Amino acid sequence: MAKTNNDEQFKNVISHAKEYGFVFQSSEIYDGLSAVYDYGQLGAELKNNIKTYWWKSMVQMHENIVGIDSAIFMHPKVWKASGHVDGFSDPMIDNKDSNKRYRADQLLEDKITRYEKDGKTDKAAKLQADMDEALKAENLPQLKVLIEEHEIACPVSGTKNWTDVRQFNLMFSTQFGAMAEGAEEVYLRPETAQGIFVNFLNVQKSGRMKIPFGIAQIGKAFRNEVIARQFIMRMREFEQMEMQFFVRPGEEMKWFEYWKEARLKWHTALGTDPVKYKYHDHAKLAHYANAATDIEFEFPFGFKEVEGIHSRTDFDLTQHQEFSGKKMQYFDNDLNAEGKPYGNYIPYVIETSIGLDRMFLLTMIGAFEEQDLSEGEKTDSRIVLHLHPCLAPIKAAILPLTKKDGLPEKAKTIMDNLKLDYNVVYEEKDSIGKRYRRQDAIGTPFCITIDHQTLEDDTVTIRHRDSMEQQRIDIKDLEQLIANKVSWKNLLRQS
Q: Is CATH 3.30.930.10 what the domain over 6-88+170-364 is classified as, yes or no?
């Protein structure tokens, strides 16, 4: 494998994502829109496959979890009840020379990372502890003191001419109504969770759900992120995959531990190196939580959160009961069977929340490899995406060796049969070697080559992406061979 440093690797992944149709800058012909991205033809396929894996793991594999799709627009009181109107803010600081705005905690985190890279682990640990203490106490002046003490400069101007740290609300607002004068201010949802909470009773009663049970959802959310950072890592429009699991009060920590383990297993089932993952317990808990852990992945720019598991207590349902005037209690008649009195209670909630875009980036980074295939004086290389076959945008490429002698017709017959079950492509342009390389670069697990022998005995050459091994098989065996590798069944058994 060609040696690259982390920065180069990340840049190469970003370049690769654009070149092969995974991710584009939004409105690129107009010079783009900061922190907003479009998913191209292969990116959309990969993204949908990640969503399918999550949905099947959550909803299909759990009898007590159902899925919904709530609206992006919600009543303004929802966000008052949830605390987002008054408390959904980030500590921001401006550089007076560049007029650029930054999150104070991210400036400090970047400094911690630099200390660690330079081997100054004691300084890194001390700054981490001081920052955590300031954040927990919501001590904004102390955050500025830390930035000044550690001589953090603006990445643009290079100066240390900072304003005070202040809070900045991250919600997008818009007008809801026919005319602005008579319109009501509403928000684009900053998270999908509240759509689950306000539908708690609707789902519970219509589905006759019994505690413990979960409600899952995949959907867009919007945050007015000030800083465009690290490609699709932090965006203004993003997608979340969230599940809220409703449990009896007092049993929340048992389920918190269960979902921590279950969610990490879901990640590693994809074949990603387990060493790349770690748990990170929150030093400062959100206002609704009594426990919180992040699953972090080692990106080229350090360990960052990919998924959060939170014990949200009964905060959300209690708040919505208070602000709406509607009872959000659950009548647990199973308690009597256990020798306990019947009881009404507001359930506690365990949340699993994963950023789909971050999972997409993680998948691309984990799969990307630049391989040196040189032998002796012969130089050769390839770029390959080692995507799990279930996630690969294209499952197989159908490649006639030449454009004549009936090979394209035979190839298209094979394609017409396979495309009923799988997303496959047909390519006849360029040499067979170049076509192999292109399919390696987009992560296609199998290349099926149709040659003159195929016309004689109905066999084809199938090439395996990772090993580059080629084998001759009967056309009638193609479907089973592909199915064994790309079957959701096999992946779900491991997750």
A: yes
Radius of gyration of the chain (CA): 26
Handedness of CA 333, 336, 342, 344 (dihedral sign): negative
What whole-number distance in Å separates Cα of residue 464 and Cα of residue 405? 26
Domain ranges of the chain: 6-88+170-364, 394-494
The H or E element containing residue 194 is helix 193-197
pLDDT for position 266: 97
Q: Which two tokens stand for residue 63?
A: 């009898």
Residue 2: pLDDT band with limits 50, 70, 90: very low
- The model's pLDDT over 340-384, given as tens digits with 9 standing for 90+, comes to 666 789 999 999 999 999 999 999 999 999 988 888 888 889 999
Q: Are 333 and 342 in contact (CB under 8 A)?
A: yes
- With b for 16 or more beta-carbon neighbours within 10 A and e for fewer, the 75-98 pattern comes to eeebbebbebbeebebbbbbbeee
The per-residue b/e assignment along 234-253, b for 16 or more CB within 10 angstroms, e otherwise, is bbbbbbbbbbbbbbbeeebe
Binding residues for substrate: 103, 191, 238-242, 351-355
Only one residue has tokens 């009195």, namely: 341
Q: List the binding residues.
A: 103, 191, 223-225, 238-242, 305-306, 351-358
| Pairing status of strand 396-400 against strand 424-426 | parallel
Give me the phi and psi of 316, to 5 degrees please: -65, -50
C-alpha–C-alpha distance, residues 439 and 425, integer Å: 10
Residue showing tokens 């090979």: 407
Task: Give me 465's structure tokens.
Answer: 């992406």
Annotated binding site for ATP: 223-225, 305-306, 355-358
Tell me the CATH number for domain 394-494: 3.40.50.800
Q: 103: closest CA among 282, 278, 230, 286?
A: 230
pTM of the shown model = 0.86
